[in-house]
Each structure stands twice: as structure tokens, then as C-alpha cells.
Amino acid sequence: MASSLPLWFPDHPPIYDIQKSYMDNAEEGPFFDGAYPERTLPPKEKWVDFLGHKIMSPLGVPAGPLLNSKYIALASKLGFDVLTYKTIRSAAHETHSVPNMIYIDVNGQLPRNESTLHQTNKQPHDMEHLAVTNSFGMGCYDPKYLLKDIAKAKASLIDGQVLNVSVVGTQRPGEDFIKDFVKTALLAKEAGADIITVNFSCPNVGKHTEGSIYMDPKTSGDIATRIVKTIGDVPLVVKLGYMEDRARLTDVLTSIARAGARGVCGINTIGRKVTNASGAPALGVGRETSGICGGPIRSYGLEFVKNARDIIVTEALGLTLLGVGGVVKPEHFDEYLSAGADIAMSATGMMWNPYLAMRWHEMHNVIIYD
Ligand SMILES: Cc1cc2nc3c(=O)[nH]c(=O)nc-3n(C[C@H](O)[C@H](O)[C@H](O)COP(=O)(O)O)c2cc1C
Predict the structure, then answer these.
(1) In what residue span(s) does the Dihydroorotate dehydrogenase catalytic domain sit (predicted)?
(2) How far is the CA of 348 from the centre of ligand 1 (A)?
(3) pLDDT tens per residue across all 370 residues of the chain
(4) Is 205's C-beta closer than 6 angstroms to any atom of ligand 1?
(5) Is the distance from CB of 86 to CB of 140 less than 8 angstroms?
């Protein structure tokens, strides 16, 4: 069956304008002027269980591309069923300045050695080659705005979809870092999150430890324990970064499962040095390293998911597994599901092709177009 879904990439720009600031994108975006294809909803007996919620499909968007309720509403209409509200903090926080996202010159998968990567101004000729780096610093609005906007995001979903709210703790002088994680998770609960994902793995938060907690099984377990105790019946997912060391991954997964976390999500972006044509840091001094995302990290994400699934089964951890990293074409969702993910998600891919989920639904014959 030929697709009657309109083409998006490369004819249309991404739904997030990389020339504009994060705030401008939040206020003016999402930049979507396409049609809303009609989705034929699967019968309820085909819905899948996700942490106690029945959802229509195992497709989602992880923390990042859905900046606020307008973006959540768009992704919901375009067939994503696990919608993640971008990472929130306990207080308003500045985003890094523009540029926040640039194309990088990587052909194929990201090299395993830690060589420096280079910026390119050329848009890739196809989705497979969509290679980007991002650095936002997890900026966010104040709690008053968030309470209202997260509730609005939730109200935009339909039956068979869930709202996942991503949270992180902030290190502030004289304040208890772990308490701030708990406070932020409570804010997410109060705002109406169906599921909460705690981010232990952002590579763009510089010297702070916010981004590297996932490398430490004990701290990961301690923070997860405190959050689980406080949020009660709202399931907690822990977001991890790529981890090559299987023994360490086993320890982290065991530790968060013991803490009462119900799920694990990986991977986050992979931190690498990126320079421009003159050899200077492409995102500016102070941001020498940034997170690589899109096509080149798919093999890393798949490796993570295979290892995590194996460990979850072998150690009988009972964790639900959310896979992300490099899903830029609809068939990549299937690669993740086959590798052992319960849920497969796309961040960069869905920004450059918001019809990604609809194309998957079409491939799986659960959608009919006029
Ligand atoms: C624009 C953008 C912003 C992101 N912001 C966050 C964030 O706030 N919190 C988080 O846990 N991950 C964030 N991520 C990481 C994604 O959730 C995902 O783990 C990563 O991009 C790999 O997936 P991808 O290859 O599909 O982009 C962000 C990614 C992108 C592209």
C-alpha cells in the first residue's frame, strides 16, 4: 500500500527552529503547518500495558522535544502515546544561549573512540543521516507556570495515552541536592503526571554532578528510594545514559529496582567535543562538550537496551524498559522493540519528521488514510 501520508523531511523545517532561542520556540512553536492524518485507533484488546496504564501503542517521545503543553498536544495528535514533558526543576532555570542545536558531520554510527567531532551547516539529505548535537542545560519555567501547563498538557491527551513528566534535582549552594529531586518529583505529581521519570544523565550540565548520577549505583538508589517513598503510587522511571560497563549497569539496575523504581529509560545523548570550521568550540567557550543525538547513536541505544533487557531478566528485576537513541525512521522503533524495549521513543527524529509515529502505525496496518 503506497503511503498517502504527506512527506515531511526534507521539504519542511523541523518543528523546533534551531536558529531561535529555547524561549522563542516555547512561545512561538511548535512549527508545524502540516495536515493531521486521521488515525484509526486500535481496538482496546490490542492496547498494551505500560506501568499500570493501557496505551494504544508502544511509541513515545522522551524528554526534550515537547517543551510545553502545545508540543505535547501536537505529539498526541500525531500518534505518539507516551508523551514526556521536558525535564522540570523545582524553580525557574535559564537555558543555555543560542545555538542549542547544530548539525554535525558524522557519517554512519558515532565512532567509539572519543575523537572530536565537527559542525556542519549542511542539512542532511535524508533522515538516516540526521546527526545533531544539543546543549540546553535543562532550562525550565517556574512552578506556578508548570502546575498550570502540565495540567493543560494532560488534558490534551486522549484515552490510551500517558503523560510522563521528566524531573531533575538542582544543585544550589547550601541546599540539599537529594531533597530538591524529591521536591521536583512532588511538583510533577501535583501537576498530574501519570508517570515520573527522573533524569540522572544529562551530559550538558557541566561540572555539576546532576548529569553523571547514573554512573553511581549507590547515589542512584538513594535518590530513587527517597522519590519513590514520596510519590507513592505514581510509577517512577529512571533515565540513564549509555554505559559500556555491563557490571556497573547491573549494579545500577539492581539498585534502582530495590529502591522501588518501576522502569528504566536509556539512553540520553552521548557527550562529545564538537568544534567549528576554525577549530573553536562550536557551541561557544565553556560548552566544549555537548550531547550527540539522532541517527549516529542508534547502535549505542540498541546495545544499552539489549544489555538492560538481559540483566532485567537474569536478575529478575521486573523493570519496564524504555528505549531511546537514534530512532529517525519508523522501522527503528521496531529495532528497539525487537531488542527488548517495552516502549520505543524518538527525540531528534520526531523533531525533524513529526510523522514518524504515523508512518509506523501505517506500516503496522493500524491506520487507514482516505
Ligand atoms: C532538543 C533536545 C532536548 C533534550 N532535553 C532533554 C531533557 O531535558 N531531559 C532529558 O532527560 N533528556 C533530554 N534530551 C535527550 C533525549 O531524551 C534522548 O535521550 C536523546 O536525544 C537520544 O534520543 P534521540 O537520538 O532520539 O534524540 C533532549 C534531546 C533533545 C534532542
Answers:
(1) 132-353
(2) 7
(3) 567 788 899 999 999 999 999 999 999 999 999 999 999 899 999 999 999 999 999 999 999 999 999 999 999 999 999 999 999 999 999 999 999 999 999 999 999 998 899 999 999 999 999 999 999 988 999 999 999 999 999 999 999 999 999 999 999 999 999 999 999 999 999 999 999 999 999 766 644 466 789 999 999 999 999 999 999 999 999 999 999 999 999 999 999 999 999 999 999 999 999 999 999 999 999 999 999 999 999 999 999 999 999 999 999 999 999 999 999 999 999 999 999 999 999 999 999 999 999 999 999 975 444 3
(4) no
(5) yes
Q: Is the minimum distance from the CB of 138 to ligand 1 under 6 angstroms?
A: yes
| C-beta of 64 in contact with ligand 1 (< 6 A) | yes
Closest CA to 128 of 348, 355, 341, 359: 348
Question: Sign of dihedral through CA atoms 258, 225, 194, 170?
Answer: negative
Q: Is the Cβ–Cβ distance between 14 and 352 less than 8 Å?
A: yes
Question: Is 136 touching ligand 1 by the criterion CB < 6 Å?
Answer: yes
Closest C-alpha residue for ligand 1 atom 23: 325
Q: Which three cell numbers stand for residue 109?
A: 554510527
Classify domain 22-363 at the CATH topology level: TIM Barrel (3.20.20)
Substitution candidate for ligand 1 out of 134, 204, 205, 210 with most atoms within 8 A of CB: 134
Q: How far apart are CA 8 and CA 289, in angstroms?
A: 31
First to last CA, the chain: 12
> Domain residue spans in the chain?
22-363
- Reference 309, options 296, 299, 319, 298; nearest CA is 319
Does the pTM exceed 0.90?
Answer: yes
